[in-house]
């Protein structure tokens, strides 16, 4: 199958692009908006944990709907609930910090519905030969929206001097989410499958084998994601106290990411996945080291540029190998919804673990050195992930 000639694949990428554009516009500044009401790292940690708890439960519970009924409706509802979340933030205003758990749970439900449906459809329209290419396009779209969205949002918020700017950006996000819902109706209804097995993931873990290594590898990977997903941008704002600087940071790092994902999508071959993933993991750790000298805009920019440059080497193999396992045999293909759920629950477990470590440490001590050492500890998790996942990569002879 030539993915480039599949209109449904292009349409799915377009819906994905609108979703992440809206998320980039508002999501980049959401934690800053909450921080300006209450300067508390642990509060943001609990907000993110609420998201992850709801995301994991939604993945598991909605799996039945996605497998046995209309997965496109799950995708649409996920986008719609994302819009509802930002509507609630607009309504709550500065009092949003008093509703951390309900807002976080609502946000997590929206993400769970969208990404479960998206990942299942993504598996159905791609295969082992073109998956790296597809991942490259996803990365490119993320980079382009990361360039446009945060920079524009930062400029608007700065120009409008605060709350009015935030309200405008959140409103624009609502409009884009609505456009994504409308576009999603042009996606064909996907075939339904047999009964959903609620305990398939547990069965796979008990059996051991390749999925044991995949689950542990994904869980360790998630430890970094849970904290880095919000802390780096927050540190940029804390260091500069300027939304425009945060928008500039996102523009620069996303521009680098665009080039690196394009290059990896074009030249990265399956036989290089194993070594490429390790190299990417090591380099992503090394770019954190400048923060030991000082945590300022310059060192954070080094971290951001370095991560954007090297993360495709790590992330593309990590994504591809787990999805390749789903197509390993006919049984796995038939259980693809359950296996997508298992994949996401593994990542969610790791994210929650990393966030709990973050909250525990910062509940004891909140200074720059402690935060930097915590970033180094969690930033090493991709290497741990590689130690598990390296067993899943075929030998060079098998892929050439």
Number of domains: 1
| CATH topology descriptor | Growth Hormone, Chain: A
CATH architecture: Up-down Bundle
DSSP strand (E) fraction? under 5%
Which class best fits the helix and strand makeup?
mainly alpha
CATH class: Mainly Alpha
Largest sheet: none
Report the average pLDDT across residues: 87
Summed up, what is this model?
This is Major facilitator superfamily MFS_1. The chain is built from 16 helices and no strands.
Characteristics of this structure?
about 400 residues, disordered C terminus, Growth Hormone, Chain: A, globular, mainly alpha
Q: In words, what does this structure look like?
A:
This protein is mostly helical and 400 residues long. It has one domain (8-186, 195-399): Growth Hormone, Chain: A. It is built from 16 helices and no strands. It is globular, with a radius of gyration of 20 Å. Mean pLDDT is 87; it is low at 396-400. It comes from Paenibacillus vortex V453. GO terms for molecular function: transmembrane transporter activity. This is Major facilitator superfamily MFS_1. InterPro entries: MFS, MFS_trans_sf, Sugar_transport-like.
Architecture blueprint of SSEs:
Blueprint: H1 7-37, H2 41-68, H3 71-92, H4 100-125, H5 131-159, H6 163-184, H7 200-207, H8 210-240, H9 243-267, H10 273-286, H11 297-326, H12 330-334, H13 336-364, H14 368-379, H15 381-389, H16 396-399
